[in-house]
Design brief:
With about 70 residues, the chain is an all-alpha fold. It has two helices and no strands. It starts with a helix and ends with a helix.
Length: about 70
């Protein structure tokens, strides 16, 4: 859906049967579909970054626990 909407933007402006007003309206409608998808993708990327940070912290904590256990 998102890829089609993005490629549709180019097709809108190359369609000589549409008036400038129709092209503008179609562009706004496509952007209205694309922008929420971009927002969702950004949220997903941020969640993955947070998961990676948590995993890194957990691994560092586990290493410190192992070192402390070996020192006893």
């Amino acid at each position: 859906m998102g890829i089609n909407a993005i490629s549709g933007l180019g097709e809108i402006w190359t369609d000589e049967d549409l008036t400038v007003g129709e092209k503008f309206t179609s562009t706004l409608m496509n952007l209205a579909m694309i922008l929420p998808l971009v927002g969702t993708a950004i949220d997903a990327i941020n969640k993955l970054k947070n998961i990676n940070k948590i995993n890194s912290l957990a691994a560092a904590g586990a290493t410190e626990v192992e070192i402390a256990a070996q020192m006893k």
